[in-house]
Structure formats: structure tokens, C-alpha cells
């Protein structure tokens, strides 16, 4: 409220109280001012009341909320349902213009500010989580896979003759489909086993480039976060190769923001070689609903080029979720949420299983399922279904030697990231594991009937 | 947001858009300014976004929402549940101080403003609905009956020797109990039948005053809104009597705000005689949840005296509901909600029943139930239960000659407001009636078995 | 949703997923079933989603939300503003009937359930916080003071000849007013100083009873929670006296639920003597908005009698707040919130002040302000204003020898609970104190000018 | 709640009331049952309470809301901010799987149901608004332009050798960019002027197909809704041509759902020729926030193919908005929102201007701005800025002969859909026009200074 309103209030309520109220309002405004001035994630969390105050202020600036709006001839920004209007804080216009998803809209100063500030705050988070030299980024209301597709489509305009994308294998469907959707042919590089770890086969990468010709590659498409025993790609070496052969390099950093190791790999890759863009999901990295991603990079012009490829205005919903979340957490709160690694006990060994040694994978762990080995795959499937009915999410059982065909390409040993694996594995995220399945020792009956496999879930810290 | 914040916004979004946004904000502020300046119900409805903006601004002024609040030693204004905080817009302090329910609280400039403005806006509504000379009022989070009790308790301090309250009979329990709860002895004046109408027996009133002595009466307790065939009390004549005998006069105006006739009666009563306070319910008059009332009067000092009788701080919830409702309706919207009288068709007669002629009752109508007359009361009870199971609310069946004892006092013919009535009646509110029960003509079977009474509900306009 | 709907869902989504969803729904229902079955505060907290599910279910049972509601002739339960409807979860009917604030309403099965369950859960909390033998209670949407008034008004019907209420002095306005509002004459018993503590003067109590006659006392009105150096009344001895003289006994337990000592005193008093009802505030005890209280007692009939004194239906808002809060905390969460006593450091002494020794007061502490002693009262006032502008709530400065007249009665030494105190004191709640004011040692300048008093707030743990 | 819970309730509240409540619950359930059974937009609107009940039920079925969820190793469906969780009704999982945006998710039966039902209800709406034979559709959380891109990318897999997209010119940036983003070369067909109308140049279309070879065209990309004087493309003739030459046909139906004429054109096109998919925006057609589209078609397999091209899971936010909106409107409410055409008065002529005669454009109208003709373009620009500052949205001024370059392609006469236009025009939507700008007659001063152009906005009905 402006000063005139405060003066009027003093006629109703003693002026010393009103002045204290005015001072309190200024404390909220001070936070908003700092946010706009610095464009950074605030150190300390904001209260929900400050967040709502801010969003209401933004909404008031959008034309659909103008009190004098005569709305000639348009349904622009009109919303039929009050439930819908409220759940979006009356920010209805989406983000971007037909020309550019990161651009400002004439009719929607508030929504435009929301978009700009969110991108700016997210850039700050990318920096303090490890990619210090990132120069530009934007939030896009599409899945990570579709966002990768948009990057590939943008590159096509720069390399109209390219047909292939070089891709070290990672067994996750949408990564693979992102290339096919963009109309390119993935050149799959199988990983090599080093100890327990599956790592990037750099020799094979270089061989393929020479075999097919660097100019025929749209880009290298590498990956950081993945399920063990695969580990993040050798980003530094790949980036150097890309620079050497003048091939663009797009990194799928899916859930990598939670790991300082993944972020460090990107920072290093860009320093010593070439990374054109890296893409990360919003949901797990920021704990928001599914459906958004961040496209980021080191060359502002290239990132701008990508944002200009999106034809039309886009949903502001993921941007709004990220902004609310970061303001209510603050930078300090966000950092606390980042993966706290937990030492897994010797639990596996006590039960005759082995934790695979994958030190390069900062996110996920894998355990052997040897005791199930001699038995048919049905036992493994049963374990999977037990996880499901016990409502255990975030862990999965990978049976030995499954073949899967994705959009015409057949992957042997699907979900183990390699075609030559030797046993079933139990795969789970490192950071919040609290239960692992343990086969009961007295499983003689097991030999007789698969349906008596007994599994307990033992709590570990 | 202040001008500095707008300047910062201009660095992110083109300044012409920001300036338009600023202008839009001013449009909301202008409405708030007018409200504070005039203290009146705005002519036009406010949008929900303006209402929420205003409430958020108020909340920010309360000390529980101070960002720098160190909260020494107190749970003052701390709320455990986020659900609870949000549903009260974080206005937690209630209204009033221990000394006065209408007073300003040091810790809560926002809640205090809410309280002041609500009372001021409600006063405006009382004026434009007909009691033009009302000088003071306040919202109290208690039922109408309990609010009447508070009025009586206040009067006791002025008339310490009084024992009786003179009360023209109205068959509604809480009115009667309000006097008993305050510790007084009601002197019940039975109504007289004039035509179909039950009206105040003024001769009896005067006779009782003389019999028991004016100085022994705490007050006259009259009623406006009531079910037909009772009609509003003869307020003018009662007010003149009160002035003449120097007896205070408290009017139960329960749902009378919906009727210009009731409001006019109060205005006239105060003009020609004496009315000390009139009390009305919040729920039906303002279409808000049950549980609040307005105590109003013509002598500011006396109303202040009542507000000072409430020991402690009170719930702000009813005040908040009324304020939100009046702002989102506007004066014009409120006026539209006021009772539109509907001409009831000749329906009753077509079915051999009679609509009682009660022109002085602006709110409620009554219809005979002659066809049920000759049968036992069970038929009437059955009709009542049919209304209930058909989810017909707002109408009731009054069986002939029911006796009911309320707090020790026995009322003959309860709910018909008189002890000598001749038939069952069907009683309903005038304004929104859309169905009335009609006995089927071919009800021969009825004579045989009560359980075959056939009733249809016929739509009327 | 019922089983038919789940079957239909299985046509759209795989039935194993739907069955898992159904099982998940049952987990919520199980919690609701237990609540209804046991009528107790659940041990563990409910998620907000369970709470909202439950409230929505209740709302659906109220007639204003009936889809087929034809609403004949009534505005019953109609709410004009969507904002208002939503903030009350569409529970609009309030609680109670005109006959009884704790009764069931025909039109509102959901609101009635809300009312019953809230009272039942609150009774459970009263028991586990220490008053194990409490037999009945109800939530009333009125301040503690007004609730005490209602108790006194109820007693009047039992003791029509009584004029006095015997009241050991406690310097809090609304306690005192609660008796005046009910129309009685407080007989003030000054406290006696024992060491640093102000305690009940039992001899004087007994003397007064004999002087004025037990039959002329409506009741004894004692107090538990209070600011130091006053300590809770000697409840056991008072209860024995009441039993001996056949005088009712009403206890003001304002904020006493936070202290097991206060609750224990009530339990003991009722065991060895007579306590008719005890009244506590909702706000600080349950961390909900201001404006409700609980009236509880050991004789179900008497508590029922009080609930029947409230004329009319009452606001459900405080009941709703309490229920939401207790469900989202759970019994365990509630217990954790209970006062954790903190040992106050030797801070006071380091600054030449003394912490008063008041071991019988479990809630509040007092510190001398000797250094301000020799100076005028203005210095004390200045300290108070510093607390205010620093947004320190929950602490207060009590200047020496202030006189205050409350409703005609003059209290010497107001706010110190005694008329003969010797110095200014600084008074604060025990439990959450984190800052206390400390006068700077080098306060020579102070002697010259009051306006240079320097005070720092030193953090204590 | 299940029957056991209702039984328990009967112990607290009279069983007849509880049974009425149970019956009321069934009324809500009946609506939900019908929705799931029929998969159609309900005829009558649902109350907000039914909608919220339904959404809460869906949310309970998602694994993130399972009370027993042990959440092993994952942040799956965990949301950091309560504000965010609530605004999505705790439906967090998005829609689809990595394999298919329309597929069911194992962990999220509720979100999956939401997705299925939304698509089913939207299909029903497409049918009753005119495209009776549409067989399949899905909501996608992307702009119309990006959704068109997805269609083109899908077609690429069917026609790997194609390079061109045949596109009758429409001056809207994102339509044009949708083809470039997908990596294709638009072949622009200039429109022909027939009377005042700009219509599809069929001869030129056929000529181009023959010139470049049908097999080299990915598809024809036609448009329905557009600004006058352009009118919807000749869909029937184009569809016949596509069938004849075996070229796919994608229709941009942007805002065409509001016009029965546009929908009829699509229905006819598919009947007599070939339409592979048609894409429409969510925002204006359903009055929801910007950022979603519907992709629909007549061959279920092809639509499924498109949905499988989206790599990853997508935001459920637009689906949720559409579902809430359609349920709260009902089919009848939706139909009422559909364009009510208003006869524009002879206003234009009274002011010396002419309304262009464009009977084939059901959505938009254009008016000449002859009086500005003789003056410089600055006058037109000024008029545009006046519209802006008067907060008139939905209308625009098109200056004569503006050239604009979009992604390298230069359009002469941009925004007039043709390169040879003769005058400035004022362009606005038909349906909700309420003000048009009118030049004052006494505009002599205008000749002297452009800055004194006087324009009034005259209300028309």
C-alpha cells in the first residue's frame, strides 16, 4: 500500500502501530528489492507470506488483471474457472512470445518478470552448485528428452548436412528417443567395463568419428547422471575430442544437479574442451512436479538461438513452481537438500551379496543378486513386484540379459547399460536409501518353488 | 511494491510495460484508499484479487508476520498449522483487547484495521438498508441470542434493581433463552389475532408495566423478523411506550436486514420513541457462516458500553467473512441480494387450502393444512419428514397445539406464536420459495392409512 | 470413491495400479475410522492430505452442499462469497442448536460430527496433559473471559441468591471483568508475599467466607497461569475449602495446558476437594487464532448445563482450527510443543539484576530492574517502548506502583498482582525466552538524560 | 468414506442425519461414476466441491501420497514446497511415460486417470463442437506451434525424403517457425483477393506440387482461424488435393474451436479428402492459462505415433486446467461460451470507414482506416499505442506495407496476410467486440500535427 493509504490508516488505528506495520511491509519489500537487484537465489528462505505477496504483485501487473481492462474482442488471459485462476496466482499469460520463449510479453509485465527472474535465479543455482562459468540458461516447460530434441533441432540449422549423433549408451528410453524425434540417427557407443564400472569407450568414440566423418555428426550427446554400474561419461575427454573435431557437444545432465561431481564434470569439460549446452530436469533437482527442464550453456548466443526455436508461448507453470520452491528454500535450504551421501553398511555382504564398486557414480549404487542367479528370471521379476507392492519407489531390479527394442533399435542387456553383463542386479539411488532387500538365508524351499522366495527389507542408515 | 522495486523491474522488462503494471497496481490501491477514506461499502464489487491484495496487506502489518519478530517468551500469534494460518489469511490476533472488543490492539495493526473497517462498512450497510440514523455498531462473534444476552448484561449495570424483561411472544428458543441466560425473568405477552395476523398486544404490554412497575423492568425485548402468521412487533408504539415509561428497548432484528419493512420499523421506532440497541444475525443477512451478530444503536456511548462488556479478545473470523463478502458484492450487489418478493400463485386455493393473509410480515408466509386437519397429528409429522428427506430446507410444518417447555416455561401452541390456534399450518419464507407441498386430491386411501398420504411438491414462481 | 468407481477406473488404467490406489485410499480411511472409533487425538500426525480429505467428507454431509438441495425459502447455509466458502471448507452451519451449543443439528451432519469429534479429541488432550479424571468438555467460540462469564451465569440459576465471587487477585483485566459482566461483585483477596512469590492468602479467603456468608458467594474464582512473581493459586487448599463450605469453584486455567504443573494442580484439586469447571484459552494452548476457549469439568451434567446456556448456534471456526491443528500435530507432536523449560543463565546477575525466585510459577519469570529504580518511571516506559519497536512480544515491563481503575475498581500496583511491591520488574514467559534486556554498565549518561538509556538484548539459551 | 466410517458416525450423530449425509455423498459419487463410465464432458456443470472431491481422490491414488510410502532412494514425487504441492492438488507425477505421453504410469494411478479422462473429455468436446468423426486426441503441454513441430517430426519418419511443407500464407510468426524448427523448408503460397477476402490460391498450390514433386512434400500445412481479411483456408479442396497426391495434411486450427464454421470445415475436409491431424490451442478455446494444445485426428494409429514421439514425461498442469474448466462449465456451459456473433452496427460507415466484407472469416473482422491513409504511418502507430494505453486487448492496427523478416524469410505486407494491400486496417475479433476506435470528424488540426489525432472509442453492441 502506498503512503497515502498508510496515512488514512492512522486515522483508524494509532499511528505508532501503523508505522510499525509500514516498517514490517518494508521488510518484505526489501527482500523483493534485493531479488530484483541481484537476480540471485536469496541466501535465506522467504516466508510463504512474502512469496505470496510477491506473486500477487506480479499478477497485478498482468493485463488480464487490470481493473480497467476493456478486453476488446479477445479472450486474452480470460480464465473460465476460478479454481484454475487461483492455482496459477492469476498469472495466465504463460511465458515468452511467438518469437522467443525467453522474451518479454507486452500484455504481461508480471508474467514476463516471473520468467526473467526465474531464469536468473536458476542460473545462480547452476553456478553455486558447481558450473561456475555457465553464462545463460532458461526454463522450458518440456521433459528433459524433448528439451534435448529442441537442442538438436537448433543445431540442425548450424549443421544442415549432419545425419548422426554420437551417443555413449545409457539405458534410458527418452534419451534415446530425443535423437530419433529430432530426426537423427544415433551412433551407439557401448561402454567398457573397468572394475565394476561401465565407462565411456573413448577409443571407440574417436574411431567412429573418423569412420563416419566429423562433419556428418550433428553432435556428441553425453550423459552425467545414470544408474550404477554405469558411471557418468568421461566429460572432459569427450569435450576435448569435440573441440578437436569441431563437433558440438550436448550433455544430458538429467538429475546431475544433486551431485557436485556431475556439476564439476561439466565445469571442467567446458574449461578444457567444448560443451554447447547441458540440459537438466526440474522435478528431482528442484523437487517440483514433473514436466520441466533447464537448458543452459556457456555461449549466450547459442542458448538464445535455442530459446528462439520454440514456436509459440509456453506454460509458465514449471517456472512458477521452481521460483516458489527456490524462494521458500533459499540458497541455504537448497544446498541442504543436496545429496548427503550415506555410507552403506556391510549389509550386502552379510547376506552373501556384493555392492558393486562404482566410485565414479555419485548418485546410484548397484548390488549383486547372486542368490537369485541360479534360478530363473521369474524370481527376479517377483522381487520387482514385491518392491512395487511394498510401495518401494526409486529402486529397481535389473534381470540378466533382457532384450528391448526401442523405436526399432534392439538393446541387449537393457537397463544394465551393457550387452555382456553376468548377473541380475539390484539398482538404487545412493542418497536416500533406507531399505534394501535381503534374501533370507534359509531359502531351501526356494529351490522348490519360486513363489516362496522370502525377502525382507532391512533398514540401513 | 514501492517505486524503487518498479525501477528495478524496468531493467528486466521494458519500462512501458512496467509502467502499465504500476498504473494497474494504482487502480487497486485507489479502491483501498477510497475504502479507508470513506469507511463505506464500495458501490461496485471488488475483484477477488483486490480483496486478497488488501487482506495480505493487512496481515503484513500484524506482528506475528513481522520478518524480524523475535517472539520473546510468547506464543503470541504463532500458529502451529499452515492450513489454519492460510485460511485466516495469517490474521491471527483476533479482534479487540481485554478492555473492549472494538478496541485497537498494539500488536496487530492489521487485525485492528480489519475490525474498524468491518464495523464501519457494516454501519454503512445498516444505513442504506433503512436505519438511516443508526450511529454506531460492532460485529461480535456470538450468536444473536448470546449477543442479546450481552445487551441485557450491560443494561443490568444501569438498572441494578430490575428483574423482568417484557417480551411479546415469539416462538424461537434462543430469543427466550437469551433472557434467562442473562438472569432475568421474561414477562411473556401473548399476541393478538387481527385477521390472520398475530400482532403485538399493546394494551397488555402497558398493563403489565403498570402492574409490575416500570422500574422493575430491565427492558422491553421486541422482535421484527418472524415466521407467519406472527408479524413484526408494533415497534413504533412500543418505542413510544418505552420512552414514556423510561424503559430501555432492545430489538431482536434477527434476519430483518433482508426486509426494508423491518429496517424501516426500527428507523421509525427510534425516531418517535426509544430504541437502545438492535441486534441482527450475520449469517442469513450477509450470507456468511453461522456464528456472528451485529449490535447496533443510536447512542454511541451505550453501544461502546456494550462492546466494553465483552471480557477478552474475540475471534476475527466472522468479521473477516463479512468484510470479504461485502467487498466482493459491493453495495450494489448486496442490494440485489435483498429479498425480491414473489407473488405466490393461487396454488393453495386450487388444492383447497388457504394462504394466510399476513401483509405485515414481509419475510414469511403461512398456508393452512386443512386437509390434514381431521386426521391425527401423525400425518403432519409425516409431512415434516417428507420435507426433510426431500432436502427441502427453509420450510416447516407446525402441528396444531403442540406444547413445549423451554427452560421451565411451558408454551402452548409452540411455533405458532399463540396458544389458541385452530389448525396445522405450513410455514415458509417468502423470498425464495419455489416448491410448496400440495396434497393430492384423490386421497381417499388417506383415510385408511396415514402412511399413504401422497404429497407432491408443485413448483411455483 | 466407491468400489464401482474403482472398477470403472480399471478400464482406463491397469487394474494393478488402481488396486494399489484403492489400498492407498484405505490407509487414509483407516485413520479416519480410528479417529471416529476412539474419539482420541491420533498418536501420529496426519498428513495435510488426510486432513483435507476428512474435512471434505464432512462438508459433503452438510445440507448446504447437497447437490439436490432445493433450498425452499431459505438462505440456510448459502454463502455469497467463494473465498469465504472455501476458507471454511464449505462447513457453514456453525455448531450447536438454539437449545445447546454442543448439540447435533439436523441440517448439518458434517458440522455436527466436526463439533462432536473436536470436543472428544480436546477431552483426550486435557486428559493426557494431566487432568486425567476430567469427564466432559466443549469448545466455545468466545474469549476465556466471556466463557468464565457463561459459567457464572449458569451458576446463578443454581444459586439465585448469591451476590459475590471470591477472587484471589490476578492483574489481568478480562478475568476481573468476566465477573462484573455476569453481574456479580468480586471480593478481591490480596496475595501474600512468600519469599519472592505472591501466593494465595488462604486465611483471608476463609475469613471473607465467614464474614459475608458462604451462601452469598456464587463461587470461588481461582487462577493457575499468571505472570511472575504471582504463582498459581493454592488450588488444592481452595478446593477443600469450597467443598467444606459448599461453594462452587471455577478455575481460570487460561494458558495452563502448556504446563504439567498447572494441569496437575487441577487434577489434585478435583481429587481432594471441589472444582466445578475449569476454563482455558485455545490460542496459546493450541497455537490457533485468538477467540476460543474450552470449558471443562468433572460432572458431565454441570458442563451440559453450561453448554445449554448459550442461546443460539455458534461459530465453528475455532473448533475447526483446533481440530486441524491437533490432527496435523498428532498427540506426539502436541506433546513436543509443550513447554520445554529452559534454565535461564546467570545473565541477570552479571548485570546487577536479580531473577525473582518463583518456583511455583511454571510459566513466567520476573527479573528486577534495580538500575532503573532510582530514576523516574519514564525510564521504565522507555524500556517498554524499546521492546515494542524491537518487535519483542511476550515480555513486559511493570513499572512500580501504577494505579489502574478497571470498571470502577482501583488496583494499586496493577500488573504486579500486589499493592505493596518495591521495584520495577521485567516480566516474561519462561518457555521460549531467547532475549532479555540488559542495561549497559556504562550508563553514566543515563543519569543525565533518560533518553540515552542504552539497552542491549542479550541472547540466552 | 466407507460404510464402516458412516456406521461409526451414527454413534456420534443421529443416524437419520448421517444417512442423509451418506446419500449426499452418493450424489457426488454418481457424477464421478458417470464421468468414468462415459468418458464425456458432463452435460451440467459440477460444483467446485465435486471437482475438488474428485481431484483429491485422484491424488490419493498417486504413490507420492501413499501414507506407507517408504520412498527408497528416490525423490520421486517429492515436492519441497507446500505451496507448490497444494496448487497442483498434490498431483505431482506429470503425464505419460518416457515411451508415450499418453501412456499410463505405474507409480501414479491418479495422474494417469487424470490424463486419460482429460483426453477423453476433450475428444467429446471436439465432437460436439463439430468434428463428429474425430477418433483420437491428446492434450500436450506445449504451444500450438511446438505441437505442430511435433506432428512434422512424426511425419518425417514416414516420409524420410521430404524437404518441403506447403503453406498458404498466414501472418503469424509461430506457425511459420513451427516448420523451420522441425527442419523443413516452407513453400509459401500467397493468398488471392476475392472481393475483400484473402483466400487460398488453389491453382498455385497444385502448380507448386507439380513443380517440386509430391514426394518431396512432408505435408500441406493449412490454417483455419486467422485475422481478417484472410479467411480460413479452403480445407475441403486442399484435403481433396492431398488425397489425390498422397500428401499428408496437417491443419492449424489454433482458435478454431470457438467457431462452428472452422470445426465444420475440418469435418468436411476429412470426409471428402485427407486430414492427418489438426492442432488447436488450449488457452482461448478453453479459457485456461497459456501453454497447451490438443493434437487430434481421424486415424488412431497416427495420433498414437505422435504421442509416442514426445521423449519423456510431461507437465500435467494444462491437462488439469482443462479438466477443471470443463467439469465446472459442463457441456452446456461450454457451449454457451462459444462465440455469440454480434452484428456490428453501421458505425464504421458513419465515420467514413468501411467494414471489410469477409463472410468466410467467422472469427475476426477488419475495418478500413482510410482517414489515416493520406497521412504518414506515424498516425497508425499512434493509434496502436492508444489502444495499448487504454488497455484495449484483442484488437490491432495493421499499417500499410510493413515488411518483416521472420527467421530469414521476408514477408511484405506482414500481418495483412498479403503483399499487395492498399490501406491501413483495423483488425479485431468478432465475438466480444465492444469498442471500436472512431476518428473524430473535426480533425482539421490533425492535418497539422500527427500528435493531435483524436480518437474516441465508441461502444457498440
TrEMBL record, chains A, B, C, D:
Belongs to the SepSecS family. One of its GO terms (molecular function) is tRNA binding. One of its GO terms (biological process) is conversion of seryl-tRNAsec to selenocys-tRNAsec. GO terms for cellular component: cytoplasm. PANTHER family: O-PHOSPHOSERYL-TRNA(SEC) SELENIUM TRANSFERASE (PTHR12944:SF2), SOLUBLE LIVER ANTIGEN/LIVER PANCREAS ANTIGEN (PTHR12944). This is O-phosphoseryl-tRNA(Sec) selenium transferase. Its EC number is 2.9.1.2. TRNA binds at residues 271, 390. InterPro entries: PyrdxlP-dep_Trfase, PyrdxlP-dep_Trfase_major, Sec-tRNA_Se_transferase, SepSecS/SepCysS. Pathway: Aminoacyl-tRNA biosynthesis; selenocysteinyl-tRNA(Sec) biosynthesis; selenocysteinyl-tRNA(Sec) from L-seryl-tRNA(Sec) (archaeal/eukaryal route): step 2/2. Keywords: Cytoplasm, Protein biosynthesis, Pyridoxal phosphate, RNA-binding, Selenium, Transferase, tRNA-binding. Homotetramer formed by a catalytic dimer and a non-catalytic dimer serving as a binding platform that orients tRNASec for catalysis. Each tetramer binds the CCA ends of two tRNAs which point to the active sites of the catalytic dimer. Pyridoxal 5'-phosphate binds at residue 75. The modification N6-(pyridoxal phosphate)lysine is found at residue 284. It catalyses: O-phospho-L-seryl-tRNA(Sec) + selenophosphate + H2O = L-selenocysteinyl-tRNA(Sec) + 2 phosphate. Its cofactor is pyridoxal 5'-phosphate. The record marks 74 as: May act as a substrate filter by repelling compounds with a negatively charged alpha-carboxylate. Converts O-phosphoseryl-tRNA(Sec) to selenocysteinyl-tRNA(Sec) required for selenoprotein biosynthesis.
